[in-house]
Fold each of these.
Amino acid sequence: MNTRPWRWASALLAATFAAGCAAPPATFVAPHRGSGDLGLVIERASGSLGVVDTSARRRLGTIEGLGDLSHASVVYGRDGARAYVFGRDGALTRVNLLTGRIEGRVRQAGNSIGGAISQDGTLVVAQNYQPGGIKVFDARTLALVADIPAVVDGKPSRVVGLADLPGNRFIFSLFDAGQIWIADLSDPARPALTRFLDIGKQPYDALVTPDGRHYIAGLFGEDGLAKIDLWAEPPRVERILAGYGRGEQPLPVFKMPHLRGWAVAGRHAWLPAIGRREVLVVDTATWQEVARVPVAGQPVFVMARPDGRQVWVNFAVPDYDTVQVIDTQTRQVVRDLKPGKAVLHMEFTPRGEAVWISARDDHRVSVIDTRSFQTLAELPARSPSGIFFSARAARSGF
Amino acid sequence: MKHPMAWIALPALIAAQATAAQTAAEPDPARQARLVRMVRQDCGSCHGLQLTGGLGPALTRDTMAPLPLDSLAATIYHGRPGTPMPGWKSLVSEADARWIARRLQAGFPLESEAAR
């Protein structure tokens, strides 16, 4: 039994966290512990990460010194113990959740928006606003492997909607140029680019379906979304949900919806309507809209519980104290929750019995049972934003 | 927010009223602290917590100072059509927008520096 050293380590960690910036502990967890139920909480304003245990529903410790973490995101190495953190200030940092240590850090761009990891876990890619483009790194050494500027007609474009595809390929959208590119890094020394032109105005984010077949980019500059069937020969861009209503008196959009973290539940995709207080339901067999669900505000994240039975939605300011739960069978909102002020993100445990929700302005993360909707635990965190569990290591598009 | 509406009937005082309205409409310290947090955190979604830019442009002193105050305040209040910048008029007053614009031009305060 390992309970005694485990307790000792936890007590030490609790003391360290309480003391603020004491010397880092030797390790965050007992020896030989696995990593499948760990996670990170971004503390955006203080440049730190909370390391959490999703089984014990506890905070294990803090990793400091990550820089500007506004809009930071995380991808996991295949061991689920190492995570790559993409900071707004262009830093790429590899942290180890078991030891609580920073293992490597490079300043790779002036302004970054996220990243992805290759199917085989060997390559990490950052998507950048400035300079616009993607950069490819060796996941082990963080050495630069390839630099792919997103330049169209001599003008750099900001890159959004980056996702990994099978075969060590990456797909991404060019916000300014209105294009989608695929970079094939199966030979990292010789990246091969495929470009899709005229995909629509101002793609703002994108998702890949769980099977890796469809890439869908939301458009800010016009009604509808751009979709590519990557299994088609050759793949081409099609418009879906054209004219869903973005154009008719849209509300001011105080926060761009996030498509990544898709909500594909069964055969339907659940998508945030931009500039509207609605969630759109699309049949992924026909790509026709089949329903709209009115919700409490402009959706930001629309996320399916892993079994697809529920879809959870959070909202842009000023409605971001609310989270709504939609039953995918009746397509009705079945629950309104008020988990705290400024809800920024939600993350399901690997099999979905609980969801962790960050409330930035209440400085806490709430753990909520997805069947009873009871709050199971509340954990302290400083201005928390994104929550990323290590189970993402095993999923494409995360 | 108090507006000296009663003065409108007194033409002789209109000029004085304009100046008075501007100073009277300055957000109070508690409101200023909320605005600082809003700019850092909510505007920060697109412009970055450090306001160094993102999907939206940098809002640093260097980029803001050369712009006309009126158009900056109008951009905050009404938005910029054709770009993702929304008008914030459902959440801030014109006086708030003007105060934010002035503070951006002077170098925006950190949350820790905001009056409470």
Note: Chain B has one domain: 27-113.
Amino acid sequence: MAVTTARSSAPAGPRSRVRRWARGFRERDTWWAYAFLTPWLFGFIVFTAGPMVASAVLSFTNYSVISATHGVGLANYRALAHDPYVLESLKNTLIMTAMYVPADMLLSLLLATLLARATRMGGFFRTIFYLPVMTPTVAIGSMYLLIFNGNYGLLDRALSLIGIHGPFWQTDPNWIKPGIVVMLLWQVGTNTVLYLAAIKNVPQHLYEAAAMDGASAWRRFRDVTLPMISPTLFFTFIILTIYGFQIFDQIYTAFYNPSNINTSSDSSLTYVIYLFQQAFQYFHLGYASALAWVLFGLIMIVTIVQVVVSRRFVYYEGGR
Amino acid sequence: MTTAAERAGPPDPALPVMVPPPPESAWRNWRDNTSPLTQGLFLFLLAGFSVLFLYPFVWLVSASLKSRSYVFTNTLVPQVLQFNNYVRIWHAAPFLRWFVNSVYIDGLAAATVTFASALTAFAFAYFRFPLRNLLFGCVLATMMLPTAVTMIPVYLIWQHIGLANTQYPLWMSNLFGSAFYIFLQRQFFLGIPREYFEAARMDGDNYLTMFWRIAVPLAKPALIVTALFEFKAKWTDLMTPLIYLHGDSQFTIPRGLYALLGQYAPSAGGQGDYELIMAALVLATVPMLLIFAFGQRYFIEGISLQGRKG
């Protein structure tokens, strides 16, 4: 380390910088570092980078295990643009994500704010809100079958108590997606804990100053809490969206379990479920690879848009 | 000592360092300012939400103790407690087998990913070496990559080496670490004062013994967080077992539960024994709740750590 620091003070032209960089490989420490990295590097090449290339190549073939493989050019991509299931599942996924992400963020923010302000029993309630996160996703999907049952389900019974005739959550195409979002919101606990930690990190003196200026509770929330936790909000906005695009377990259990695999409505078909079916039920591995790359591209575009649009609203302390 | 620390220099400012949370007392002072009335309102709201969050659990346990004709009645206290449901499901499905499979696979997955990620995270936190930022960029990029992209070629790899229908694919890739945990642990390693490492070096440790004697014990909380997160993630994972496991005796808990839905649902030729399925769900959930009861601190800490990257 000492040697590196000493060297960096020497005048550096572009060529000497390259040479110094290359010389780094000859240092003992560098070899140690790479020795530590070897397992991960191996895994990265074999299980991530390699498969990425392979999947890109496969997406231009008709690979399907059973028949002979040959290149088909852009045929997979052209086919998926006209595949009604692709369009349907894409639409479903986008609608569900668009409902789920804001709902999850708002509910988390509400719960975290309440938790942060509760003097007593804050930890106790936090535990309760986090418990659903520990529940296996398959269990949640299975419980959904009973709780959201349109005839006898707990939810509709509860709604009927306040005079609402509950919908058929599992068969009415208009209500399938909202029902799924409600099911997903049960696991809001992760985000709640995250926001709570962020709120607790807001410097105390900012609130004191705001209170001294006579700011109301709402103003303190809007002008102190929100800007100070905006990096966390931004972070979860992106993570939740990526997660939303890929939700599988709960929906697959509730709608594509062996008992209703043929009867399920297309309204619950998400993009990843369709991809999974194409890959591992029909073994259209080439086609599924193309589907995967479309998903990847979509996630990239959405993330970039989110970063560009949100940048204006995120406040980094110290101008970072 | 000091010279060694000085020469090492401050941590790279471009990389986030773990910030200690503000003292709890300061926060408490602020909260105490709210009037009892507001406090009461908050408690009331929190209690209301708690009921919403807890009710499904209570309902689930209750449903698991009902007889078949009452599963759909939604009354909280069953007229007759059918503890027999648990005995029946235990015998009707190879539940013990699934349980053992899950514990064995998830345990191996958690142990291997913790150790491998620690090695990698330590290298990124401690050493300065050419290509470091590029490689760490690869770690971060991996976190954003949808599993769907690599899923098919990875399956083909396992098939090629003849392990596609075994339990190995469920944990073996963890031998090489996992991006999210590498990121998490690196944050932790960065928080350890460099003097500790320099002192160990002066005691004659090489980097490997230093890692083992100094870094690992000091990062224990982060390692426990990793192990618990991974164990939980594997315990609930359905997609990977769907791809690789074929046959009752191989199943993990989630894969087994999924199979049960087919076994009992009326439209698949079953008898509609939902009370048995509910009992199975309770059996699958309780271990996670127990783990949470003992490791709650680590789960909360692990999540809070993610948010601190800003």
Note: Chain A touches chain B through 114 residues (CB under 8 Å).
